[in-house]
UniProtKB/TrEMBL annotation, chains A, B:
Keywords from the named record: Methyltransferase, S-adenosyl-L-methionine, Transferase
GO molecular function list: methyltransferase activity
Protein name as it appears in the record: tRNA (N6-threonylcarbamoyladenosine(37)-N6)-methyltransferase TrmO
GO biological process: methylation
Originating organism: Labrys okinawensis
Classification of source organism: Bacteria, Pseudomonadati, Pseudomonadota, Alphaproteobacteria, Hyphomicrobiales
Database matches in PROSITE patterns: TSAA_2 (PS51668)
Length: 164, 164
């Protein structure tokens, strides 16, 4: 079963520093069918339910042109997640893994990333498939999927830089 | 040419809210060959130079098992980027695009994401290829590439949920 917020057998917590190195702005809110961690999918699926991404002002003008991309990278804040575990037991069976070897929502900076299929843009709301987060999750960013985006800026010296 | 921090013709800036909705912890630092925006690649390449990702305490224990993944998702803080543009002109030619239709570092929450090829793990330092960020960029998170990671937690009701 997916965690509410308990620490499980063999998991390792640390005392994290104050989260004051940089500050975030919630730029929107995500509406999904899932109101409990115990129901949400472990991973989004491209044929999953249509979810809504509502964009707040003053950011709505930043949506212009987004409909050209069939897949979007969505970054959001996992607002219910604890941040202090360095080893976790996803199976709740005593076997643990380092946090950076997992895609668990429990992380020092609980930022979730998904690839969403864009279904429609209705005013300042995006309809998408492929998410797995809870209803009400705060939005941090939207970007074109990296595999679809070609840089518009002129070429830079680093573009061709390789190394054996 | 890539922007230092000027506003260009036809670009649109807004007055952003205070960035106080949530706080970040810098968990490491990225070492790359690029010390200027005018030299860095526009996008990382899988055969690019080897870069170093140094992990700070108390997060080093969270690396355990990461070497099983040949590709990692890297999240980092674009610490030199302005955050107030909703329309940008990457070509510096007067043509503008909405920020969410670009992968520019200039965003309300300047979080960069890359897929890095793991070359080696040396103590608490990862050697990777595929990055395009500046030397000294603060690290926010490391996750297995989503296409390589299979959830370990038991199945959830939402896993099979689809919708026409």
């Amino acid at each position: 079963m997916v965690r509410e917020s308990e620490i499980r057998r063999n998991e390792v917590a640390v005392i994290p520093p104050e989260p004051s190195d940089a500050g975030l702005i919630f730029i929107g809110r995500i509406r999904t069918p899932w109101t409990s961690r115990l129901m949400a999918p472990r991973q989004g699926r491209p044929d999953g339910p249509v979810c809504r991404i509502e964009i707040f002002e003053p950011w709505q003008a930043a949506l212009d042109g987004i409909e050209r991309f069939e897949r979007l990278e969505v970054l959001y804040w996992l607002h219910l997640s604890r941040r202090d575990l360095v080893r976790q037991s996803p199976g709740d069976n005593g076997t643990t893994y380092g946090t950076f070897a997992l895609r668990s929502p429990v992380r020092p900076n609980p930022i979730g990333t998904s690839i969403a299929m864009l279904v429609a843009l209705e005013g300042s709301t995006l309809l998408v498939r492929g998410l797995d987060c809870l209803d009400g999750t705060p939005l941090l960013d939207l970007k074109p999927d990296r595999t679809l985006f070609k840089p518009i800026a002129p070429e830079q010296p680093g573009d061709r830089q390789t190394q054996a």
